[in-house]
Amino acid sequence: MRDESIFDHDELNEECGVFAVVGRPDAAQLTYYGLHALQHRGQESAGIVVTDQTRFHVQRGTGLVTEVFQTDSIHHLVGNTAIGHVRYSTTGGTGIQNAQPLVFNFAKGELALASNGNLVNAKELRIELEQQGSIFQTTTDTEVIAHLIARSQAPRLEDAVKEALSHIKGAYALLILTNDQLIAVEDPHALRPFSLGQIGDAYVFSSETCAFDVIGAELIRDIEPGEMIIVDKEGLRTSRIASPAPRAVCAFEYVYFARPDSDIAGINVHASRKRMGQQLAEESPIEADVVTGVPDSSTSAAIGFAEASGIPYELGLIKNRYVGRTFIQPSQALREQGVKMKLSAVRGVVRGKRVVMVDDSIVRGTTSRRIIRLLREAGATEVHVRISSPPVINPCFYGIDTPDRDQLIAANQTLEEMRQEIGADTLAFISPQGMIESIGRKTNEHNGGHCLACFTGEYPIAIEEELESVST
Amino acid sequence: MRDESIFDHDELNEECGVFAVVGRPDAAQLTYYGLHALQHRGQESAGIVVTDQTRFHVQRGTGLVTEVFQTDSIHHLVGNTAIGHVRYSTTGGTGIQNAQPLVFNFAKGELALASNGNLVNAKELRIELEQQGSIFQTTTDTEVIAHLIARSQAPRLEDAVKEALSHIKGAYALLILTNDQLIAVEDPHALRPFSLGQIGDAYVFSSETCAFDVIGAELIRDIEPGEMIIVDKEGLRTSRIASPAPRAVCAFEYVYFARPDSDIAGINVHASRKRMGQQLAEESPIEADVVTGVPDSSTSAAIGFAEASGIPYELGLIKNRYVGRTFIQPSQALREQGVKMKLSAVRGVVRGKRVVMVDDSIVRGTTSRRIIRLLREAGATEVHVRISSPPVINPCFYGIDTPDRDQLIAANQTLEEMRQEIGADTLAFISPQGMIESIGRKTNEHNGGHCLACFTGEYPIAIEEELESVST
Amino acid sequence: MRDESIFDHDELNEECGVFAVVGRPDAAQLTYYGLHALQHRGQESAGIVVTDQTRFHVQRGTGLVTEVFQTDSIHHLVGNTAIGHVRYSTTGGTGIQNAQPLVFNFAKGELALASNGNLVNAKELRIELEQQGSIFQTTTDTEVIAHLIARSQAPRLEDAVKEALSHIKGAYALLILTNDQLIAVEDPHALRPFSLGQIGDAYVFSSETCAFDVIGAELIRDIEPGEMIIVDKEGLRTSRIASPAPRAVCAFEYVYFARPDSDIAGINVHASRKRMGQQLAEESPIEADVVTGVPDSSTSAAIGFAEASGIPYELGLIKNRYVGRTFIQPSQALREQGVKMKLSAVRGVVRGKRVVMVDDSIVRGTTSRRIIRLLREAGATEVHVRISSPPVINPCFYGIDTPDRDQLIAANQTLEEMRQEIGADTLAFISPQGMIESIGRKTNEHNGGHCLACFTGEYPIAIEEELESVST
Amino acid sequence: MRDESIFDHDELNEECGVFAVVGRPDAAQLTYYGLHALQHRGQESAGIVVTDQTRFHVQRGTGLVTEVFQTDSIHHLVGNTAIGHVRYSTTGGTGIQNAQPLVFNFAKGELALASNGNLVNAKELRIELEQQGSIFQTTTDTEVIAHLIARSQAPRLEDAVKEALSHIKGAYALLILTNDQLIAVEDPHALRPFSLGQIGDAYVFSSETCAFDVIGAELIRDIEPGEMIIVDKEGLRTSRIASPAPRAVCAFEYVYFARPDSDIAGINVHASRKRMGQQLAEESPIEADVVTGVPDSSTSAAIGFAEASGIPYELGLIKNRYVGRTFIQPSQALREQGVKMKLSAVRGVVRGKRVVMVDDSIVRGTTSRRIIRLLREAGATEVHVRISSPPVINPCFYGIDTPDRDQLIAANQTLEEMRQEIGADTLAFISPQGMIESIGRKTNEHNGGHCLACFTGEYPIAIEEELESVST
Question: Is residue C109 classed as helix, strand or coil in its secondary structure?
Fold first, then answer.
């Protein structure tokens, strides 16, 4: 599960969550619980659009799902098909106007869109559309898709969507709602997780399977790369927006985005993280007294490391659960005097001990340095850092907002330089091959069916072609 | 750390947290961070009173610390001595008027009080005071103390406090503030944890030591049973409100109230919980595939159980971090259809497995039954329940709001009946002696210096006398 | 009706409004509408306490009646007897803790008090009570009354109230509620208006009769000086807290406090104001083109002046209705550039005209100077100021917070100096005798039954005695 | 000034207010005060967009100007050119998404629009645009204008605006902002008031001149019918969007929309209303004891009536100033028992009197009936109703949302039937000719330069042509 104490807010791009229910009178309520289970994918804003077959009912707002919706308001969201969205954004000032689902009127009536992902060529398309007279009210990629759909002359919505997406390159899990149809589309490489489930006779869609568990729905299957699913009064049918390509799930979903209780492409996230920890212990063993993880995203890997190494697993770091938007940040003066915010090292656990600190990634290195200092101040005699993902050395084109290359510590320093920079006694990363094997898909798909580009620079073949075509 | 998914809101009494800073210009800010670290002890309301030596500045409100205080408001709380309080209450409707610190004017000027605890004879004292013409604005025990102080004719405040507390029987960590003094008092048996620390030249007081770590303060020592500490312009001095009695810390503080990173009476809470898990594994071993704890309070014990038993520790249960006051509870219909709220079982971890579920206590048994069902629905083939505290069979007179005896499952059923009631394959509790040894105070004090009355019915001797005197 | 543009917020003391309903299932709702009609008497906070015969239901908050109560909340206020209060306070920082009705527990059960008025000897009583061990949570005079009631050993509440009020000197309209009685008391000189009415079989009490009209109740009569009315299950009976004294209604109630549609002591407020304007025109005639009043409190007097003088009445000054608590005050720089806030002069009405500006009072003179400048900037060639009350030269001991004598312009300057100071072409005040006759009570009571002390220094005889006794 | 007690909320269409400042560092603050002075033109939402020459800063919200903007927020609106809007809407549910100024990105950069008015052919244009692929996010007419501007291929913005407006028929005062230009356009018949002023070197634009007075600006002139004013770094220049046509100001602006201190087309609104009252007294004299106006919009006419008839003017009806959005409406049961909401009749003024009640208009007649009943219940012996506008018998195409013809009482009943329906003793309306003369423009323009279509059915010639072309 994403941990804001590790990757700071400004380091991560628009990683969002989408959810939909088709064909239940309590569609909006179920969507509420679904979004609540996806809350870790975005805390900036939340929204639900529901159709009663005649018109839309919309509620969107900034804040957590529990802040945006109240008992009263949820009961105004009447209708049996709903789509919802939780949003995580890069820039603080975006606010309510970018809250999804976006809602428009176009020639075929009302249209709502919710998307998790990033378009590689959004900027070019936007300029082109503006030159043709389009006006934009948001800065989201999703509005570009809406314009393309509206401009298509195809009489059927699904053909208009197909035509629109043919112009688009990127990673997305996309939901489109009208008063008589719901359309769900997975990008051609399935970079973003997207699953189809069912609850009774109704269909549900979700960025992660954990949301199915929460509402008592059953997973049917993951949506295929390039697949478009249409649900309307005729029932559910499936189509394609692109020719079949191998699945290339973003490896970072396993490393820290997804909730441990979700399954992606059939693999449980907690289990894959624990295997990464075990692998790490085998690749880079160390003599120590205790193993601790950086909560919450590294807990599973730390448990795995402890198990494989035989070193006891302890709660050496505690996270304050109550840090929210309105938390008053300590002044610089107070910080220097030692006022902590989110993480505390547990003195009684680490004092006089050699500590293995397992974390899921290092981006800039600043957070690692801070946590290591916490541990030493609490009395740790040695701090050995083990990272359950390989060094991040390449930018991501598909929605993970890695900072500029010159700020990626692993792209600019040797392992030894990094160790000194963060102040660890030893430092080791898992190997790319070790990670692939730990995630556990032993298929003959490229990289086991995962995108590891940020670690290896090896983009899945199809993606490379796209990038070339974009840059042309 | 208290877990609301285990003990439901209505099962627990007024367990609060107090914090104070004496002698720093940023007293209110430090108190804010201190209260934030004590947030797990009370989420209903929060308050800070600060004195600038001439007058009080007060802010109190319902909600979390981060909701009650904003950047603007904290800067209005000027002065170099502050006391703060977080409150947990039994009844939903109490609201703002019971938010502490309470503030009064009396003959000696302004008076603020903040208390964590429960008075055994509050009701009797209240009736007596009303018959003498006192009027009450709150339903807190703390207001009784204030009236007793105000009615004392002793010229010095500390003598008035001593006189007031001589009428009182109960458990409390009490802070009293005037414009020129701060007084801290620990009850005669030290049932509630209460520590003295320092940061630079300033003194700090806290219900738990974790709050010292957060602000960079050092623990000096725990306050002694019956000790009264006075800080004023003369410095710090200590006095007594009662003759020396053995320490009898509430064992439940170790079991689940306190934060794992706190030390109480010199013992780290996480470490003591882990030892309880180890002890439990030794006392009641079982063959199984995975060990899981009920988050968050049972995590440490589960780790200990896993370590001692050699069964792998896994995240078999996941708690949604975003459940807050404004969460819309699912209707009965939705619950029956399987909508979960706070806890999810991790299918990928427990499916097809024999699971040891470690929990910290069983009160009514309803929550255990619910969690066991969650695990079975997620595919667990067996569920073995291990409880890291002994059966609760007696009411608490000192602030833990155990429900009426007829609702205490362990007071009314045999172990086998309980096992059937909650639906476990096997069920075992730690022994009282095992718990005492696990907590780890090998002194010759009675019960190792702890109050175990709710488990054993054996009240510390001095307490029994008091109860007799009260009931007379 | 009080006009904040004339007397600024900080110049006026605690003038409040009280309302009660006894014996109707919709008591709280009717109290809401009653308080709403009394909103002009206090905008700082509002509150209602209702009893269902068993316990109190309380709601209080800062802000307007419409801000404090919502549809939901009013329906929680169940019970058939309610008292309510709107509060106007002198100091900004007082906040919620001073919101009335105050609610206490005392030996006889629950007790609520709401009072409009001011006690002359509140401070002395408070000190005395504190020395006897009382603690205070508010800075209101009303809490002093509560303590005195609680300390009385009289077995019947009405005797306890009588005993309590025997210690008190001042002006008040007081409502006291328990779970089985409502008691209403008017001070011995009836300085504050207080009326008894009925709606169906139920009794109502109000600071002003306008609140009766709004709920469709009928006025029975004004409450007599020193009268105590008790309503309980036996019905209504009347008693006395003091021997009969002549009525001495505060003349300022007629001048600007009360709503024009209220009747006080049988005299309509608008009609009395209009007669003051007519009297003023007769006493101090002037040749001019238009008459305008300073909205809203001087409108009636301006109409009277126009009618008596034959000069057309015009809307020469317009008040912005939307200035509220959250209005952003213009910076000094913007003010100097001419940004106005609440009042605008109507250029099309006053340009090139000789204007008579009728206002109800001059306290410091600063507001008059500002308004005269507005009129001149809008093109008025002459501005003749006529004030419908005599010069204020003495402090008030009974609740009107006249500023210190050295800030009362009329106490320090001659009429000519004042004229120059405010920049008027001519300036005249109504004579005290003219005002008495205009109000219109031609009785042989002293001063026609009014208190004119702030104008004349002549305190009603009984009051003088009291003041002596206080100052002794 | 519009009085909601007369025309109920649902009877009036989108009558809004616009304001702009060009060329001052405090542009947003001045716009705040300007919008505050225009608050009577719309209370649903408010917004300001300011440019710092590089980018827009936007704040919009539902509620009053004082609710939408706080001190902090206004200081974030940096830049020296600002446009603002207050909105009044017909449908309750519209909410924030329709709050103006609207903001878009288009090919030429950022674009903001604020408009007061109504387009006759908005619906047709919208359908046409959607068929060409446009998507709409609001239901405002203003968004149609934005799309037309964006689709124009004209390289200069002012030509694009001209081209866009050539498709549009309707009444509007329109403000358009980019990062380097402000454009203001008045519709071809100047149906909506729109004025140009200056403050120092900066230009200001406003729906009404009262906003100029409030910020200390000077009126330069009213904007001409069909005039387009462009202000940019070259200074101010003027252009035309249509060939010259006679001014046809909506007469209802004088009757009740505008503030009495505004001048429209050189005529003061209060003065014109007073003349209407005088004219009415001459046209339909009556013997009576008092004249009263329905507050606030009919006060001026009532004063005029009183002056011309010699009958004293009194405050016979009082409006509660504190009725706001959150006022709890009395239940039907309470209403029947006599609970009033906004208006009270002053018993002391009307009891036993023959009352002339002057009102500004009758639409459905329901409000008049209610007020007459109030007066009779308060003791009026006769109620003579005089209306300062002619009977409304025709729908308005230009933004005044007259209800359907079958609900217009004057379109369906004779004068005598109306009199009986509302319960008056006599009833008279001003004549159309009398109204024209009272407003006072003795030009040879058609109808003195006013649109009287709702009274006479005579639409200004050019308008009729347009309507034909639309209906073709």
Answer: strand
Half-sphere exposure of C188 (CA within 13 A, CB side): 19
Number of Cβ pairs < 8 A linking chain C and chain D? 196
Query: Is A67 at the interface with chain B, CB within 8 A?
Result: yes
Helix (H, G, I), strand (E, B) or coil at A260: coil
Cα A64 to chain center, whole Å? 16
Residue B4 has a pLDDT of: 33
Judge whether A210 is annotated as a binding position: no
The pLDDT, as a whole number, for residue A244 is 77
Torsion of CA A429, A433, A435, A437, to 10 degrees: -150
D216 touches chain C (CB under 8 A): yes
Q: Report CB contact under 8 Å: B135, C146.
A: yes
CB–CB of C348 and D263 under 8 A?
A: yes
Given a cut of 70, whether residue D444 has pLDDT beyond it is no
Write down the pLDDT at residue D462.
55
Beta bridge partners of A428: A386
Cα distance between residue A125 and residue A118, in whole Å: 13
Residue B404: how many CB atoms within 10 A of its CB? 8
Considering only CA atoms, which of D153, D54, D50, D167 is closest in space to residue D106? Answer: D153
Domains and CATH numbers, chain A: 9-245 (3.60.20.10), 263-437 (3.40.50.2020)
Any residues with CB less than 8 A from the CB of C430 and at least 6 apart, and which? C276, C279, C280, C283, C387, C388, C389, C390, C438
Q: Which residues of D242-258 are buried (b: 16+ CB within 10 A; e: fewer)?
A: beebbbbbbbbbbbbbb
Chain-wide mean pLDDT for chain C?
88
B260 in reach of chain A (CB within 8 A): yes
Tell how far CA D317 is from the center of its chain. 24
For residue A327, the chain B residues in CB contact (below 8 A) are 36, 66
Q: A395-407, pLDDT tens digit by residue?
A: 777 766 667 788 8
d(CA C106, CA C120): 25
pLDDT interval class at D48 (50, 70, 90): very high
Compute, in degrees rounded to 10, the torsion defined by CA atoms D253, D256, D258, D259. Answer: 160
Rounded-to-integer distance, Cα B245 and Cα B186, Å? 12
Integer-rounded Cα Rg, in Å, for chain A is 23
**Tokens standing for B307?**
């370590």
Q: How far apart are CA A313 and CA A106, in angstroms?
A: 57
Residue C8 distance to chain D (closest CA, Å): 18
Q: Is the per-residue pLDDT at C440 higher than 90? A: no
Best-predicted range by mean pLDDT (B415-419, C436-440, D435-439): B415-419
Nearest to C114 by CA among C66, C67, C56, C163: C56
C65, C86 contact by CB (below 8 A): yes
Question: pTM value?
Answer: 0.87
**pLDDT higher than 50, residue C3:** no
From residue B42, how far is each of B1, B272, C399 by CA, in Å? 11, 23, 43
Q: Write down the H helix ranges in C16-91.
A: 27-37, 65-68, 71-76
- Please report, for chain A, how many H helices and E strands are present, in that order: 18, 23
Q: Which of B130-134, C104-108, C330-334 has the lowest mean pLDDT?
A: C330-334
Q: Are strands A235-240 and A227-232 parallel, antiparallel or unpaired?
A: antiparallel
Q: Do B147 and C133 touch (CB under 8 A)?
A: yes
Give the three-state DSSP class for B218. Answer: strand
Q: What is the mean pLDDT of each run of 10 residues along chain A (472 residues)?
A: 31 71 96 95 93 95 90 89 87 65 95 91 93 92 95 96 94 96 95 96 97 94 96 96 87 92 94 96 98 93 97 93 76 79 89 97 90 95 97 79 79 96 97 91 63 82 55 44
